[in-house]
Fold these 2 entries.
Entry 1:
Amino acid sequence: MIWSWNTFLFGIYPYIAGTIFLLGSIIRYEREQAGWTSYSSQILASKRYMMWASNLWHIGILTLFLGHFTGFLTDILEWLGLDPVEHQWLAASAGITAGVVAMVGGVMLLLRRVLDPKVRYASRPMDIIILVWLLITLCFGLSTQFISVPEVIHDHVQNMEILIHYVRSIAEFQANPQLIINIPLIYKVHMFCGFTVFLLFPFSRLVHIWTVPLNYVVRPYQLVRSKIRSVV
Ligand code: HEM
């Protein structure tokens, strides 16, 4: 492998970010249990505003997260009868919708964080840095669609196929950055920002994702009895 920025950023950096993501999360969990929290500031905001901002953000981001995995499912999608052009249409329409939803929610969260004096006072610098970084990543992700959509309109999915192979090569620990040497820059910038999210993850409030209380959905209801006995 010949050394170049492309090789470093897309062949080595993803593993540096991945290692920091895993080791950093473990070390933080072991050492800093008290700081393992989403640092929710919900209590400091108008309930209605926060409900919209938080729901739009989480729905958008989680849909994008799942959408990014469809790149690994091309064989299954083909088996289901979806050809690559249809796959790209589906990915672009769902991805753009989710991206815009997340952007609206994210901007609302950021505005509240910097403009509301109480929330700002309760925020650590990293709370703002990670939100801004996610929004930048989101902007570049959405910008890739200025290339992807015109391509798919002309039934071309060349870039998509190259990117799927590249991302797979990373996941299979056989990184092949040469695959994307000629890919338009905007995809590279977006992927670099995406890898960096993993690098920043253990130092941010994002760690709450590891311990999201999914059992809340299935656990039995909590019984809360009123002190005042109801008169039947
Ligand atoms: C390891 C991290 C990531 C990688 C490798 C990655 C890769 C990609 C690629 C290759 C595309 C273009 C798909 C196409 O048009 O063919 C894309 C699109 C997009 N990405 Fe990412 N991404 C990453 C993380 C993120 C994150 C963290 C966000 C959100 C904050 C995000 C938001 C988007 C959006 C909104 C689009 C456009 C809509 C879509 O195609 O889903 N990405 N990403």
Note: Residues 64, 67-68, 91-92, 95-96, 99, 134, 137-138, 141-142, 144-145, 148, 160, 163, 167, 187, 190-191, 194-195, 197 surround protoporphyrin IX containing FE (CB under 6 Å).
Entry 2:
Amino acid sequence: MSSPIIAIVTGANRGIGHAICQTLAADFKEPLLLYAASRKGEDLGFKPSSTKTQIEYPSLDIASTNSINELAKSIQRDHDGLDVLINNAGAALDDQHSPENVKTTLDINYRGTLKVSESESQDSTTVLTNELFYRCVKLSYHF
Ligand SMILES: NC(=O)c1ccc[n+]([C@@H]2O[C@H](COP(=O)([O-])OP(=O)(O)OC[C@H]3O[C@@H](n4cnc5c(N)ncnc54)[C@H](OP(=O)(O)O)[C@@H]3O)[C@@H](O)[C@H]2O)c1
């Protein structure tokens, strides 16, 4: 079997990230090692439809530099590098306007996502948002 595509989905435990992982587990045709990352690092029970798909459930808090670095180190240690990063995790605090919430939103959604992208990806890594991922699916583009 050829080497699997190594992919991370952040915020995999609910919402759009959960749907992306379900889609990849059910439909992806090539060998795939999917890191379905969540803050708790819990087993989310995705059911791969193929033996070519393997799923791991690491912990990743994109607001924590330590957490980002730990996952990046473990992926660098175990693999040549990451092929696909789907930056999905994010906080929506729009209904509670306050300077503190603006800062928290920027820290997580902008600075956290940037740090994950810088730590996890190399020149050859495809970095997608969840919206871009769905455009790829619509175009039947397999990374
Ligand atoms: N739904 C929309 O219409 C829409 C529109 C524009 C953009 N977006 C963006 O698309 C993404 C997903 O949307 P959604 O509707 O699926 O949102 P959601 O249901 O609120 O899910 C957000 C996901 O992000 C995770 N998350 C939040 N803070 C995190 C952190 N510090 N570290 C790691 N994970 C964290 C959450 O984990 P926990 O369960 O641990 O909190 C959850 O898995 C978000 O980034 C959102 O801002 C969504």
Note: The radius of gyration is 15 Å.
